[in-house]
Amino acid sequence: MRTNSDSEVENHVKFLVDSLTEKGFVLVDSPYPIQVPSDTSSFSNAGLKRIPFSEADSITLQVVPGIGPGLASRIIKFERALGGFNHPEQLNDIYGLKPEVANRIWEYFEFDGKIRNQIPINSIDVAELAKHPYVSYGQAKVLVAYRNQHGDFAGPEDLMKIKIFEKEWVEKLSPYLAF
User: Fold this and answer.
1) d(CA 114, CA 176)
2) 20 to 30 A from 46, CA-CA: which of 31, 88, 123, 167?
3) For residue 21, what is the enclosing H or E element?
4) Which of 35-44, 64-73, 147-156 has the lowest mean pLDDT?
5) DSSP per-residue codes, 96-159
6) Would you state the pLDDT for residue 39?
7) What is the pLDDT of residues 18-32, one digit of tens each?
C-alpha cells in the first residue's frame, strides 16, 4: 500500500528523470538486478543445534556464512595438525580466515577446548615435531638437540632454559606437550 509520501517521491523522481532527458541524457537500463532488502531472506542459525567444535568437520563448518569448502578444509586441517584448539583466538592463526568470520563460528559451534593429540616431547624426532604448526624445523632441531644433550624435559619451564625461545612461544606450545 502506498502512502501520499511514496507517490510524492515517485513523482519527484519522474520529474528529475524527465528533466535529465530534456537536457540530452540517455537513460540506460542496468544489467544488474536491483536488490530490495525486504525481498531477500537472511540466514538464521535458529533451529540449528550447536555442536562442540571438536566434533565439526569440513561439511558442518560450511553452515557458517563466509566459510566455503576450501576454507572449511583449511580450518579442519589446521585444527588436526595442531591437535585441537586450546583457545578460540587460535582461529586467527589460520591463513585466509577473516576475524569477523572466525568470531561468527562461535555463533554456530560451542568451543570445547579439547586437545586430542599431545606431542611426546621426550621421544619425538625432529621431522615429526616440525609438523606441528607452532614449531618450525629450526626450533625442532634445537629442542631435540637440547634434550639429547641435557636429558628429558620435566615440564614447560625446562624449555625456558633454552635461551633463544621466547616465553610467549613456550606458553603457546606447552598445552600441546606431553612430558
Assistant:
1) 11
2) 88
3) helix 4-22
4) 35-44
5) T--HHHHHHHHHHEE--------EETTT--HHHHTTSTT--HHHHHHHHHHHHHH----SHHHH
6) 46
7) 877 787 777 676 666
Separation of alpha carbons 171 and 173, rounded Å:
6
Rounded Cα distance, 94 and 19, in Å = 55
Longest CA span, the chain: 90
At 163, list the grid cell. Answer: 635461551
Q: How many helices (H) and strands (E) does the chain have?
A: 7, 4
> CB–CB of 135/109 below 8 Å?
no
